[in-house]
Structures are given as C-alpha cells and as structure tokens.
C-alpha cells in the first residue's frame, strides 16, 4: 500500500507538467472569460474555446492558468489538453500558423483559384482543393503551397488533406511533401539487383 502511494504521487507530478505551466499573454493579445467561454483576440484574429466543466481557467497578472477539478485520470488528461488548446489559441491569434508543401515530379504543378487551388499531379484529371473559412492558401511558383491561418487544427488538417492527394512515393521521388520533410528514398528492385 505504501508503494502504491509513492506511485500515485509520482504520476501526479509527471502527468500534470503540461497543465500546470502558465500561459503568458503577449502584447497585443486580450483574453476574456465569460462563464465557460474563453475568447482570445489578437492582431491575427479572434478564437473562442468552450471550457470543459472538468477544468477551471483563470486569467490574472498577464497569464492564463488552467486548474483541474480532481486528480482522476480523465481530469489529468483533460488538464493538459485544455492548456495546450488555449496556448495554441494565443500563438495563433498573435503570430498565426503556417505549413508549406512542395510538389515533386515532372509536370506536377499547382495553380491558385478564387476559392482555393487546383493540383495537377499525374492524374488524368486535376484535383481542386477549396479553402475553408479561416484558412488561406497561397501558391509560390508552380510547385509550392503555403497554408496559413490562426487555427492550428484547421491549418494542419488542410495541409494533411493536400498531402494525401498524392503522398510522396519513396521509389520514384514524386508526390506532395511537407517542406523540410525527410524522405527515406528507396532504390527499388531493379537497382538492388544490379548491386
């Protein structure tokens, strides 16, 4: 029983590191709390978050602190999640988020449209991607796409949808990849037979 107490105390310290960390509010960002609705406004825009009843959010001294109602496993996991989501809102409204994708392959190109982009990536048809509200798509050259917005989840989701149209092929060095993504290219069967 004494050992169980030590284990629970250890878990208490390790599982709540993220949740206990205060979130500093940068200059130009305002945070307001109306009962269970948290609103974060900044130079890039405004985001809202409905605070779960299992956690409590306090705003004071230029910081946001998230506290949990109990030490149950559910509330501990919810503690870290709520803190991460709120921190993402602060960064998004103050700086914004961006993901860049690159097209690899001869003849692969992307064009900008009024509602989004059109991809030509080796199919018999072009693929049109519509930009959702709050996310912007910009094209650089004919093989680079910039996905920007204040909502980290929406930016990441749209970037993943674009990449999924033609994922990188490890043998032919073709497809759509994230900028800076490290691909482990494979020589293929023919090249391996020669060696």
Strand content: 25-35%
The global form is elongated
Q: Output the helix-strand order.
A: HHEEEEEEHEEEEEEHEH
Q: Tell me the radius of gyration.
A: 22 Å
How many runs of DSSP E, i.e. beta strands?
13
Count of helix runs: 5
CATH topology of the largest domain: Outer Surface Protein A, domain 3
Q: Return the average pLDDT rounded to an integer.
A: 87
- Oligomer state equals single chain
Biggest sheet layout: 4 strands, antiparallel
Q: How do the strands of the widest beta sheet line up side by side?
A: 11-12-7-13
CATH architecture of the largest domain: Alpha-Beta Complex
Distance between the termini: 62 Å
Number of domains: 2
Structure in words:
With 195 residues, the chain is of the alpha+beta class. A four-stranded antiparallel sheet has the order 11-12-7-13, covered by helices on one side. Strands 1-6-5 form a three-stranded antiparallel sheet. Strands 2-3-4 form a three-stranded antiparallel sheet, covered by helices on one side. The longest helix has 22 residues. The N terminus is likely disordered. It is 30% helix and 35% strand. It folds into two domains: 93 residues, Outer Surface Protein A, domain 3 (Alpha-Beta Complex), CATH 3.90.930; 84 residues, Ribosomal protein L6 (Outer Surface Protein A, domain 3), CATH 3.90.930. The protein starts with a helix and ends with a helix. The protein is elongated and about 60 Å long.
